[in-house]
Amino acid sequence: MTYDVVIKNGTVIDPSQDLHGRRDVAIAGGRIVAVEEHVSDNDTHDVIEADGLLVLPGLVDLHVHVWWGVAHLAIEADAHSLSRGATTIVDAGSAGANTLAGFRRYVIDQVDARTLAFLHISGMGQLDNEIGELEDIRWARVDRAVEAAKLHPDVIVGVKVRLTEGIVGKNDLVALDRAIEAAEYLSKPVMIHIGGTSHDIEEILGKLRGGDIVTHSFTANPPGIINDAGAVVPAALEARARGVVFDVGHGAGSFGFRVAEAAMAQGFTPATVSSDVHRYNVRGPVYDLATTLSKFLHLGLSLDEVVRLATSAPARAVGRGDQFGTLKAGAEADVSVMRLEEGAYRFTDAPGDVRIGNRLLTPVVTLRAGRRHVPTYGAHPDLLDHHHHSA
Ligand SMILES: [Zn+2]
User: How far is the CA of 103 from the centre of ligand 1 (A)?
Assistant: First the structure.
């Protein structure tokens, strides 16, 4: 068979098929056709030599913002996904019913990254940084959200709602009820953004159904999943037990090392790791999904587990586990070739706490449906520990 490209001699980690070993990956027609110990490269158009590198399913970032020029916080999709190892991105509520058609035409259909979206229950989506999208609850119209989502069933994977008081005022519970009502009509999950809510975390988590997603799970902005005594709140344990997905969604204000360390010490690890990369954190402290994953390596998760939490786990969370987040033969050839660098890396969280880690995942080459994308920039100097030693 004439392959488009063979990725040779890399360490393949594909949690969707419990695979971790030295393999060659053959791609033809934009799809994976073989993952084997040896694939002949006699008749291939091209070879990527991956000796010493990791060959992973294309990373899936469950929380990004890419409605560039409309949502205030959005960034360019491809420059900060394909260039950084992520082949599938899920926009978390940048668009609502009033703006979804434009998001579809001018972004989703134009970019190379596989781009899906949670539709905001607010018709305006996340338009402005100072005027919250649900301070006026009239923006939360269930019928409009359902109608818009039904026009785009291939890209809408659920309904988003942000519950912080500065965004929704005292409307958090009614906003959540409406998001869930819309999600019920669509048979999809809701993704809720916690931290700084006017109502208790128990009241909020208590409404969630199995499959619903909590993003910003490790926020240091109370009320969160850790109580004043440092324990994971029972409501979070109960939610997790009934299938609620606790996602990271690092963001500019929504990930605290101290919260993550306390939760993980009690066995409360994330179900998915996403970046919430956007305009206000892409130059730090988030940078990209790969750096967020590196923080979880530092927090003690294994490399295989970290890969799972950013490939097959988020793909399943949006009901697309059969489509991406895997290197199974037949899947579109979304592949992330990465290097696990060793050194001293300065990881910063949202409150500004710092941890020095010794491993950093960095992108080398990314294939989306078999087409190559290379990094357009390297690790930010602030990540390199020597940069910041002060006298
Ligand atoms: Zn976000």
Answer: 16
Task: Read off the pLDDT of residues 1-23 as tens digits, 9 standing for 90 and up.
Answer: 799 999 999 999 999 999 999 99
> Is the same domain home to 16 and 90?
no
CA of 81 to the centre of ligand 1 (A): 15
- Other C-beta atoms lying within 10 Å of the C-beta of residue 381: 11
**Is the pLDDT confidence value at 387 over 70?**
no
What whole-number distance in Å separates Cα of residue 218 and Cα of residue 274? 12
The answer as to whether 351 is a domain residue is: no
Does one domain contain both 198 and 215? Answer: yes
Give the pLDDT score at 386: 67
CA of 277 to the centre of ligand 1 (A): 7
Handedness of CA 164, 165, 166, 167 (dihedral sign): positive
Single-letter residue type at 188:
K
Both 232 and 210 in a single domain? yes
CA–centroid distance, 25 to ligand 1, in Å, is: 34
The answer to whether position 123 is within a domain reads yes
Q: Check whether 70 has a pLDDT greater than 60.
A: yes
The answer on 135 and 12 residing in a single domain is no
Measured distance CA(193)–CA(19) in Å, rounded: 33
18: domain CATH number is 2.30.40.10
Q: What does the pLDDT read at residue 391?
A: 41
Instruction: Using the mean position of ligand 1's atoms as its centre, give its distance from the Cα of residue 43 in Å.
Output: 45
| Number of domains the chain is built from | 2
Cα(249) to centroid of ligand 1, in Å? 7
CATH number of the domain to which 301 belongs? 3.20.20.140
Asked if 36 and 156 sit in the same domain, the reply is no
Whether residue 347 lies inside any domain: the answer is no
Say how many Å lie between the CA of residue 276 and the centre of ligand 1. Answer: 5
Same domain assignment for residues 83 and 40? no
Q: How far apart are the C-alpha atoms of 347 and 298, rounded to whole Å? A: 9
Ligand 1 centroid from CA 45, angstroms: 40
CA of 93 to the centre of ligand 1 (A): 7
Compute the distance from residue 87 Cα to the ligand 1 centre, in Å. Answer: 18
pLDDT, tens digit, for every residue of 273-319? 999 999 999 999 999 999 999 999 999 999 999 999 999 999 999 99
In a domain, 353, yes or no: no
For residue 38, give its domain range.
5-56+328-339+360-387
List, in order, residues 6 or more apart from 169 with CB less than 8 Å away: 132, 134, 135, 198
Q: What is the pLDDT of residue 359?
A: 98
Q: What is the pLDDT of residues 356-383, one digit of tens each?
A: 999 999 999 999 999 999 998 889 999 9
Which pair of structure tokens corresponds to residue 276? Answer: 């919430």
